[in-house]
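Researcher: Please translate sequence to structure tokens.
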Amino acid sequence: MSEEPDWESPEVQGRWCADLRAHVEAYLQGEKYEHGRIAEQPTWAIAPFVALWAIESKDQPETVGAWVISGDLPMDLVVADQHEHPRDAMHAVADRWLGYAEDARAGRPITALEVRGVGDGQDVAKMLASRAETLHEWAADDELWRASSV
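Model: Translation complete:
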């Protein structure tokens, strides 16, 4: 029987971040999103649930061009020129996912977001709505942004 990792451990968090960063890099390649550097560490995270990554603009080096959310949820990207602060980006992802949840409830396919291992449209709708609500709560919580675990 394997033990649950100690998520308070800097070493465990470091491995988690490195793994997520590799997934973010693969995601950006798969999306054919042209970009500069990917931040070495997430801008904001709660291990092992969510990490928000700053992605450098290809056209304007040293500026954030996009934000990618990753973790125990679908990976998604929002353009930074519309959402300068990471909290705004998180709200935007949550809003988008609520729309996707409505589409899934109505039986419309969600082609803009890859959701694996969840089941049918109603299960996808529940999962997206639940994650969206949590993201909204986290984005609104000042204390979480002061005390991020990473």
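Researcher: Any highlights?
Model: The radius of gyration is 16 Å.
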